[in-house]
Amino acid sequence: MITATILIPVLGAFVVLCLGRLPTLQKVFVIIFTSLTSILAILRLPTILGGRTFFFQLSFFPELNLFFTADALASFMAFASSLIGVLIVVYSIEYMRDDKYQGEYYFFVLLFIGSMMGLVYAANLIVMYIFWEITAICSWRLIGHHNEPQHLLNADKAFLITVFGSTCLLIGFELLFHQTHTFDFGQLQGTIPSFGVALLIIAGIMGKSAQLPLQTWLPDAGVAPTPVTALLHAAVLVKIGAYAFARIFLVTLVLPSGFKEFFLFLILIGVLVSACAALVENDMKRILAYSTISQIGLILIGFALGNTAAVAGALFYIIAHGFSKAGLFLGVGVVDHYLKERDITKLRGMAKLFPVDGFGFFLCALSIMGIPPFGGFFAKVLIILGAIQQQKIVLALGIGLGAILSILYIMRLWTTAFMGVPVDIKKGRRFDLMSLIVIIFGIFSLLSIGLLRYPIDMIGNITRLILK
Predict the structure, then answer these.
(1) Residues forming beta bridges with residue 122, ordered by sequence position
(2) Radius of gyration from C-alpha coordinates of the chain
């Protein structure tokens, strides 16, 4: 099942590309391939939560094996990413209907999802790096999908910054190999890398997660089609960095002395700076992009703290942020699709023009703001508790300040663009497939953690298995 979860979207990408002259069949197969990927990831969860781990290995060279493992952390990330991915693909059917490059778009989206599956199941540093780079290539082309000069420049910027980070990552892996003579996570268990090696690996993680000072590419990536920005922010790209940190430094390696404090300080600064940037930005996609930088920082802080409360909070937030941020971007996409406008100073009354979309957007906004009983509330509280348990009061206060800022910039976006009386009520659209997906994400944002017991038990079991 591990190989099927990876191969179905990867091979499906090439099948879809070959169906370019049959657009209807192409869309059917895209939904089938992404749905199968998600179903396989979901079906594996109960067995994994029972304590089992699955392995798959192909040997080529003594030190380079295609070695995959489905443990609690990998299966959790595969479940979250694939479920969000399939909903975004369904949204794309309507959004990309008139796009003349649909075949290329669906090819790269499927390859993107497949490489994410390969990365999370990788049990070898080099295998992780290979899929890491494939995601960079996919995101580069998807950001520049419209082939406009500024879009291509922004895509190149994203590629150069993330590849700079991945180069640092690869150098760190090579230096770690010289220390341990292995790339396999199992054999690296408990290794303490040097400060320099840890810094190189962290540089790669921060580049992919768009953390300060390598964050500037993510707001500029908003020129991509809205489903792409939702994939980048909610399902795949920026969460790769958070996953890599958890896999490498929480589960496998041990951070060198003093490094955790340095990392927490750097990430907290990024959380606050990006939240302040969101407060003064007027473009809806850029506001949400700065929000993503800040929220991913919270996930990284939770993993870096490493205690049960903080790690559970980080895992909570991967789900809560994934559902809610996907819904927010797709909700903005509905407005942009019909009105061709994203400047909040030029919009008002969007909740009346697009009532279903507006309601779904509002539910997702409540989760990002951390309003109970939405998932974002529980995640932030757990991460703050994790900081307090380690007597890091300044860090806890900083996280609290970031949470307050998130309320301010999301409320500013909502009240400016969605409240009030619209200029022309005839331009609205009461319901369509895109609005349906937004409302589904809004409902998931409410139900995922706030009201259902199963996700809470699942997070607890995964936390226990990771930290055992």
Answers:
(1) 68
(2) 21
Nearest to 243 by CA among 274, 205, 270: 205
Q: Is 211 exposed, middle or buried (0-12, 13-18, 19+ CB in 10 A)?
A: buried
Three-class SS of residue 1? coil
User: Which of 241, 268, 243 is closest to 166 using CA atoms?
Assistant: 241
Whole-number Cα distances in Å, 388 to 145, 146, 164, 249, 384: 45, 47, 35, 21, 6
Lowest mean pLDDT among 22-26, 295-299, 365-369, 411-415: 22-26
Q: Residue 146: exposed, middle, or buried by beta-carbon count in 10 A (0-12, 13-18, 19+)?
A: middle
Sign of CA dihedral 384, 314, 296, 434: negative
Contact in structure between 30 and 16 (CB atoms under 8 Å): yes
From the CB of residue 2, how many other CB atoms can be counted at a distance below 10 Å?
A: 21
| List of residues 6+ apart from 241 with CB closer than 8 A | 204, 205, 206, 207, 208, 209, 210, 211, 296, 300
What does the block give as tokens for 167?
């180069």
Taking the C-alpha atoms of residue 135 and residue 231, their distance in angstroms, rounded to an integer, is 11
The Cα–Cα gap between 34 and 36 comes to 6
pLDDT, position 286: 92
Q: Check pLDDT > 60 for residue 2.
A: yes
* Alpha-carbon dihedral sign for residues 233, 69, 180, 310: positive
**Kind and range of the H or E run holding 67:** strand 64-70
Exposure string for 7-26, b = 16+ CB within 10 A, e = fewer: ebbbebbeebbebeeeeeeb
Q: Mean pLDDT throughout 129-153?
A: 90
Model-level pTM greater than 0.90?
yes
Do the beta carbons of residue 158 and residue 111 sit within 8 Å?
no
3-state class (DSSP) for residue 122: strand
Number of H helices, E strands in the chain: 20, 2
Match 């694939």 to its residue by tokens.
Answer: 82
State mean pLDDT over 348-374: 88
Which of 54-63, 137-146, 269-278, 457-466 is modeled with the greatest confidence? 269-278
Dump pLDDT digits (tens) for 88-116. Answer: 999 998 888 888 888 889 999 999 999 99
Query: Using an 8 Å Cβ cutoff, are 348 and 456 in contact?
Result: no
How far CA 262 is from CA of 168, 233, 335, 367, 407, in Å, comes to 18, 25, 41, 29, 27
Question: Tens digits of per-residue pLDDT, 310-355?
Answer: 998 898 888 888 889 989 999 998 888 888 888 898 888 888 888 8
Q: Per DSSP, what are the bridge partners of residue 58?
A: 66
- Residue 449: its pLDDT value, please? 55
For residue 460, what pLDDT is reported? Answer: 66
